[in-house]
Amino acid sequence: MENRIVIETEELTKVYNSEVAVDHLTFQVREGEVFGFLGPNGAGKTTTLLMLLGLTEPTSGKARVLGVDPVRDPIKVKGMIGYMPENMGFYRDLDAIQTLRFVAELNGFPKDIAEERIEKALKTVGLFEDSKKKVGAYSKGMRQRLGIAELLIKEPKVAFLDEPTLGLDPDGTNRMMELIERLSREGRMTVILTSHLLHLVQRICHRVGIMIKGKMVAQGPMEQLAKEKLGVGAEKYTLEEIYMKYFKEA
Ligand SMILES: Nc1ncnc2c1ncn2[C@@H]1O[C@H](COP(=O)(O)OP(=O)(O)OP(=O)(O)O)[C@@H](O)[C@H]1O
Ligand SMILES: [Mg+2]
Q1: Ligand 1 site-directed mutation target among 45, 166, 196, 217, most atoms within 8 Å of CB
Q2: What is the band of 134 on the pLDDT scale with cuts at 50, 70, 90?
Q3: Which CATH number describes the domain made up of 5-249?
Q4: Which residues line ligand 1 (CB under 6 A)?
Q5: Range 28-32, long-range pairs (CB < 8 A, 24+ positions)
Q6: Which atom of ligand 1 is nearest to the CA of 163?
């Protein structure tokens, strides 16, 4: 049986001034999958995520996240989704625990639940040892992991990760991807991930969507796209080849 759909859009469109950023986008993400949301700079990926979160209003079209309309009920959607934005900001003078306590307070979690979740999240992302260090002294990789911890304390069923490996070194990048895979596998989290690192996307994603100039030009399991676009079977392709083929045709 196919997993249920947790995110769906229908002809979702966003026009900024007179520029079309997202152009009649229709796609679905199913429960438990890691969905690789790909596309060149300026394709409209972040704008799509912002519309799904109720952080910016669509010009037209519809979206549903866990059955909720983000235009009508943005607060409910924000409560259910974990979001790690492209540029995560932190208070430099707080340590990791204080940072997460602040987030827990904003979300209205009772203190005992908050403390429990904070410890668990810090352990999951491997920051427990450094949790008393000021965030201003954190490396880029540590800050990115704190971003994931911040998201985890909400215990969301769905997470949007907008370029979570940006600026990380190769080892940090690998560890971030492994962490995401583990959250999906063990935590059964549905993840939408934007990334330009196609070899890593190929390793951890179940399905991908390729967005070019505001349009989703392809979506599906990578093997299926490889068969359709390259005419080769499983294991004989790279996601990079598939992507470049769509990119050149667009
Ligand atoms: N607040 C805004 N006001 C006006 N135009 C915007 C705004 N945000 C995004 N855009 C435009 O919308 C288009 C899509 O941008 P978006 O940030 O969604 O792309 P992206 O796919 O996330 O790119 P990247 O890979 O660089 O992060 C771009 O042309 C961008 O200039
Ligand atoms: Mg973006």
Answers
A1: 45
A2: very high
A3: 3.40.50.300
A4: 16, 19, 21, 39, 41-47
A5: 29/5, 29/190, 29/192, 29/207, 30/2, 30/3, 30/4, 30/5, 30/6, 30/190, 30/207, 31/3, 31/4, 31/5, 31/6, 31/190, 32/3, 32/184, 32/188, 32/189, 32/190
A6: 27
**Which residue is listed with tokens 């309309």?**
69
**Would you list the domain boundaries of the chain?**
5-249
Q: How confident is the model at residue 131 (pLDDT cuts 50, 70, 90)?
A: very high
What pLDDT score does 232 carry? 74
What tokens does 158 get? 């769905």
